[in-house]
C-alpha cells in the first residue's frame, strides 16, 4: 500500500517535471555503417532520436583559478529529459530552446532518476 502511494507520487512528480520541458533535442551517435558498394565499415553519424522534449539548465561554477582582475567562472549546462530516453555517453546533442539552437558534444553519463534524467553537456567548439 505504501509502495503504491510512493509510485503515485513519483508519477505526479514526473508529470510536473516534464511539463517544464520547453525545448526539443536531436541525438546523434557514431555507429559502424558498412558501405554496400565497397564493403568497408566506417563510423558515421546517425540520428537516433529527434524532437525529444527536454529542458536546458545553466549554472555558474566558480573555479579555483583566480586572476588579479577576477575569479574565473565556468558555466555548467545540464539537459533534463525523460528517464525512459536512452542516450549513450559521447552522443552529440542539438537542442532548440527559446528559439535558439545550439550543438553540444561529448555528453556525459546520464544521471537517471525516477522522474527525469540529467546529462552534463559541453558546448560544441563551433558554437563556443
How would you describe this protein?
The protein has a single domain, classed as Beta Barrel (Thrombin, subunit H), CATH 2.40.10. 13% of the residues lie in helices and 55% in strands. It has 1 helix and 7 strands. The protein has one helix at residues 2-18, and strands spanning 23-34, 41-66, 71-81, 92-97, 100-105, 111-112, 117-123. It has a 6-stranded antiparallel barrel with strand order 1-2-3-7-5-4. Strand 2 (41-66) and strand 3 (71-81) form a beta hairpin. The mean pLDDT is 87. It comes from Roseburia intestinalis. InterPro entries: XkdH-like_sf. This is Phage protein.
Query: Helicity level, as a percent range?
Result: 10-25%
Largest beta sheet: what is the strand line-up? 1-2-3-7-5-4
Corresponding CATH architecture = Beta Barrel
What is the N-to-C succession of helices and strands? Answer: HEEEEEEE
Largest sheet: 6 strands, antiparallel, barrel
**Can you tell me the CATH class?**
Mainly Beta
Gyration radius over CA: 18 Å
Shape: flat
Class per helix and strand makeup: mainly beta
The count of helical stretches stands at 1
**What would the average pLDDT be, to the nearest integer?**
87
Q: Termini separation (Å)?
A: 51 Å
Q: What is the number of E strands? A: 7
Fold-level CATH name: Thrombin, subunit H
Domain module tally: 1
Q: Are there runs of 5+ residues with pLDDT below 50, and where?
A: none
Proportion of strand residues: over 45%
Amino acid at each position: 500500500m505504501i509502495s503504491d502511494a510512493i509510485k503515485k507520487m513519483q508519477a505526479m512528480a514526473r508529470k510536473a517535471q516534464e511539463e517544464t520541458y520547453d525545448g526539443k533535442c536531436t541525438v546523434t551517435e557514431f555507429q559502424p555503417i558498412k558501405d554496400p558498394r565497397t564493403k568497408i565499415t566506417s563510423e558515421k553519424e546517425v540520428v537516433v532520436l529527434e524532437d525529444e522534449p527536454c529542458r536546458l539548465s545553466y549554472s555558474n561554477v566558480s573555479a579555483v583559478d583566480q586572476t588579479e582582475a577576477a575569479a574565473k567562472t565556468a558555466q555548467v549546462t545540464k539537459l533534463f529529459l525523460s528517464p525512459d530516453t536512452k542516450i549513450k555517453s559521447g552522443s552529440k546533442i542539438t537542442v532548440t530552446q527559446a528559439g535558439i539552437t545550439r550543438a553540444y558534444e561529448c555528453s556525459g553519463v546520464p544521471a537517471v532518476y525516477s522522474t527525469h534524467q540529467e546529462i552534463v553537456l559541453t558546448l560544441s567548439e563551433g558554437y563556443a
